[in-house]
Design goal:
Elements (H helix, E strand, L loop, with lengths): L1 H4 L5 H14 L4 E7 L5 E4 L3 H9 L7 H8 L3 E5 H5 L4 H11 L5 E9 L3 E9 L12 H15 L6 E2 L8 H11 L4 H8 L3 H14 L5 H10 L4
Antiparallel strand pairs: 1-2, 1-5, 2-6, 3-4, 4-5
Helix pairs in contact: 8-10, 8-11, 9-10, 10-11
Length: 227
């Protein structure tokens, strides 16, 4: 996979290469997930219906693979059977939905990027459990994920996790003026509301976007096409 992705492939060729690699390794699906707060996105060959269900139900917050990727080892296998033992109703529902599309087990590699971001590459199958002949080398696996990112990081996203973020008209308006360099008193005067209201709208938008301050919130909102 590393040798193939090291070539200057276009997006379609890179997707085809990952699909073929997954099949050769005995898996049905591949998924590249870039965990980046509200800007998280996936590129995969999962069925479109499953991707829509995943985003609509906000399964990013429930998915045990994502939880393990954030807090567990860099390489790990997973299965619906093991996850259901947790007794959590939301996890059981997650795998109940996933099993309809033949997603029962898999192998994932998690690579940290910066302070909080992560790149996660997953191979999934309809087998009850993953069978691995030898333990993957963590360094080689991390390099492979880096090559996946180099080919798919700028690809057209199959699913974005910002679907559940909704700014109110006032929040978006205040952010838009703030992005243009206006101070909060100037924004208040321009749209005819109090300074404290502007501050409240900006704070609310910042929380929704998972940003640390209003300036970062404007950057995220612009990249997501919200303002």
């Amino acid at each position: 996979m590393i040798d193939t992705l090291s070539l200057p492939l276009e997006e379609r060729a890179a997707r085809r290469a990952l699909r073929d690699f997954s099949a050769d390794a005995g898996f049905d699906y591949y998924a590249y997930l870039h965990l980046r707060g509200p800007e998280s996105f996936t590129v995969s060959n999962y069925p479109r219906e499953w991707q829509d269900i995943y985003v609509r139900n906000n399964y990013l917050r429930v998915d045990p693979v994502v939880t393990n990727a954030k807090h567990g080892p860099s390489i790990f296998s997973w299965s619906a059977a093991d996850a259901k033992r947790s007794g959590r109703r939301d996890v059981t529902q997650f795998y109940s939905d996933a099993s309809r599309f033949g997603i029962l087990s898999g192998l994932s590699v998690s690579v940290p990027v910066g302070f909080k971001d992560r790149m996660v590459f997953t191979l999934a199958s309809d087998n009850p459990r993953v069978r691995i002949d030898s333990e993957p080398d963590p360094v080689t696996a991390a390099v492979a994920v880096a090559f996946v990112h180099s080919r798919l990081g700028a690809a057209s996203h199959d699913a974005t996790m910002a679907a559940d973020i909704h700014l109110s008209p006032r929040e978006a308006e205040c952010l838009r003026w703030f992005a243009d360099g206006m101070s909060m008193p100037d924004i208040a005067e321009t749209i005819g509301i109090g300074y404290r209201s502007v501050r409240s709208y900006l704070d609310a938008a910042t929380r929704k976007l998972g940003a640390s301050n209003s300036r970062q919130a404007t950057s995220i909102a612009i990249r997501l096409g919200m303002i």
